[in-house]
Batch of 3 targets.
Target 1
Amino acid sequence: MYRYDQYDLTLLEQRTAQFRDQVARRLGDALSEEEFLPLRLQNGLYRQRHAYMLRVAIPYGTLSSAQMRVLAEIGLRWDRGYGHFTTRQNIQFNWINLEDAPDIMDRLAEAEMHAIQTSGNVVRNITTEQFAGVAADEVMDPRPLAEILRQWSTLNPEFAFLPRKFKIAISASASDRAAVQAHDVGIYLYRAPGGEPLLRILAGGGLGRTPMLGSVIREALPWQHLTTYVEAILRVYNRYGRRDNKYKARIKILVQALGADAFAAEVEREWALLCDSPSTITADEYRRVAAHFATPDYADAATDPAVLSAHLAGDAAFARWHRRNVHPHQRLGYASVTLSTKPGIAAPPGDVTSAQMDVVADLADTFGFGEIRVSHEQNLILPDVRQRDLFALWQAAGAAGLATANVGLLTDIIACPGGDYCSLANARSIPLAHAIQARFDDLDFLHDLGELSLNISGCVNACGHHHLGNIGILGVDKNGEEWYQVTLGGEQGQEAAIGKVIGRSFRAGEMPDVVDKIIATFCAHRLGDESFAQTCRRIGLAPFKARVYAQEEG
């Protein structure tokens, strides 16, 4: 993974010193809260329902075991012993005292981490898929280009005050596992017939109160032009994006207003001024950054397939975990493993205790090369595990509550912190997630259902990506009471789709029954091994609505 050089370290040192002074001035009332607001947001510090919340960046979702231990330490020393991994590969600490924030920033900087640009109207954390660099279906490793974009966009003065926040995701695999189409700018890497890496650029995706999927605005862009082309997009957005209405300020509104073709033409005109400028990525620069993502020593891959087969045949629970949580690897004898943070009512989705973080760091050192990934589904991944170690890893992870065999299943719920913490939320997400997880706690039944995503957002800002869930749940406010609106048919990946609202909203207590009826409808109409998404596409919403609202219609 990328290691900071002296420029990076100096930048962080100066930034944390600046922030320490700003906090001291706020605590001494030299700065009003209004004056302090933009300063703290530039450093990822929010003021939430109960306390300050600090959002720490995890660039393209990659952590070292040493960094994970620092996050565990922060949770223990300055929070309440845990952290919350988000849908954009960040971690949030929800119980921060303002007085402690500068010390936390210093501790992060010592471990080559920061919270810069995790909030505000800037380019946010660059994301990619959790298996980048090791996925069996990968065309090329997207991390070097993601890192180049990170360096280019960090504290870029031209884009410090965009109309709204700006999110970029990159995928380089046959399966899009980074929700690329739901980002302001989405990038697919692929290879030309001759092998040259090319970029497909999408713009205008985003969720929130006006969900849209991105439109392709450029095909076959040579990789050397990544930064100049993104710069051209940002310049067009910066110039024409609305600033009079924050709800109309995202780039998706501009792309929709101009039309994708007209927007693309504007970008091409701007790019003509930037193409082949000094910002063009040179082969030397790519090699410099890519060297930080060098292939680990996979020499010790020797494995006896008979041993793994014996474990799979002899332990049904291990076999079930292997089927859901173990993923194909590029290297023979290795696999990637997802550690589920969704054990059911024992913890909110994405929450990991400091003790568990330390365990994950130890597991990464023992069973891999000291590296950990964060998925946008809020789980943790060990990317390089010898297949001969899978059984031992499963046992160790299980002892720490991190081996629930539900990855990609109904109880692998994606959820924002909701009204229990977030001051923007209209309704609570965590109790609802727990109620649904408790209703569907039969793992055999869940495995029979197959792939099925359920996403919960506490408000229209859609931090839980509910629009992309096969079943999406949105918290809404009705005269001061919490209600929940249901969407069906959402999907992420290459066939991404925005879910559609099925009808009137429900009270929290009704929701497990509503999900029950949706699942019953799926089972009644499913053909063979169809996934929920396939059945939903085939039969449409009508059968689901008929069962969910049956009593009302009767």
Target 2
Amino acid sequence: MNMLIYLIPIALFLGALGLAGFLWSLRSGQYDDLDGAAWRVLEEDEDPGAQRPPAG
């Protein structure tokens, strides 16, 4: 029972850390282009200087 004194604050801290990481990823634009990364994997890199069509 005494371990709950330590485990509850540790669990709250880790939850807050995960929430802060999620909010940081939202603000930095990690989820802005979800389909573009999937299509870029399938494209061949014949001309690396060519412009890609806008995703959307």
Target 3
Amino acid sequence: MNKILLIVQREYLSRVKKKSFLLTTFLVPLFFIGLYVGTFLLTQKSFEDSKALVYVLDQTDSVQQQLTTNERITYAKSNTELQEQLKEVKEKGDKTSLLIIPEDFFQTRKIEFLSSGKPNIKIQSEIENELEKILLAHAYKELNIDADKIKNINTQVSTSAKEITESGDTKDSDTRIAMGIAMGLSILIYLSLFLYGAQVMRGIIEEKSSRIVEVIISSVKPFQLMMGKIIGIGLVGITQFVLWIVLSFTLFTVATNTLINKEDLQNQMLEQANVENAELSSSSALAMDIQTALNGVNVAELLICFFLFFLLGYMLYSALFAAVGSAVDSETEANQFTMPITMPLLLAYLLSFGVLINDPHGSIATWLSFIPLTSPIAMLVRIPFGVPTWQIIVSFLLLVGGFLVTTWAAARIYRVGILMYGKKASFKELIKWFNYKD
């Protein structure tokens, strides 16, 4: 046991001291925060740059007064001849345009929009929306319908979704939040298992290529070496996760409070959502909806299950990657073996965006969450939708059993393959190594 701890210590310290680990750990949060701040600032600048002046040549004498100037468009009545106005628009550049509303506008619903270059699609679309409202108001007036009464009719439906628990009580439930969490967990688990499992394989290939492993094997058993590497690199992954979460939260808070105006952020969110009713779409109402939805998610259960299924899933796949690393002399040769062992993981990942989310309690989702090679992703995708406790326990026990069997099989291949040089491994050869007696 002490030898395994020594190997764990060696693997952990040697990797966390690497420049690549430090750069990745600190640069990834900076990259995402930079992306967040950059997106906001560029969006804000695009709004400022898109401010336009639109001259209106209104031949109906009634439409121009109904056009409302806002932050992006300033409407101005054209008091000059058409040719002179066109010349002025041409001289002022692409932020100045001319809107010609013909006398028969209410019958033909046709306008002309003239600018010196290609017209701005967003500005053009907004003008069309304004004119459509004017046409609608005109139609109401023709039909003697009170437009204000029509506007005050609110047809928006607000659903308060609840689910009945096993005890017969009800609790808040929101499928959208569950789907978001499930998809996030699916991506996180898939990338983590694949990346850190590949690190175990790469580390073994490097030591095998440099013959360092021969020296190590003279002091420890191959199984101890394999387990030490798996646990050590797993701890590196957990350390990186914790640092990413802490750094991202800290940087996000600092960036939001110092670099971004909260009022501008709220206005941009409302603009992007294209919501007209500011009362219903205010940030406080949105925050309350999200908070209510999160109340329906058992966060403690989710965090505990994430930790357990990630840890066991990582150890299971790392044992397989370790066996592959011991059987080959280079990463190029490893491709033929890594594809078969990662297929179950890839299958669960792909199904998580369709089958598992659409039918989390169906037979396919249930069976996938019991099979050890797919359960780390499948079960975590299902948990936000509510899974019976007995299914989580059975899935966890099967994963423990799968991990023990996989580690035992991988260790039998590892003990022989780690000392094999220059011999091209095949599946037949791996079976032979597995059957070698101690």
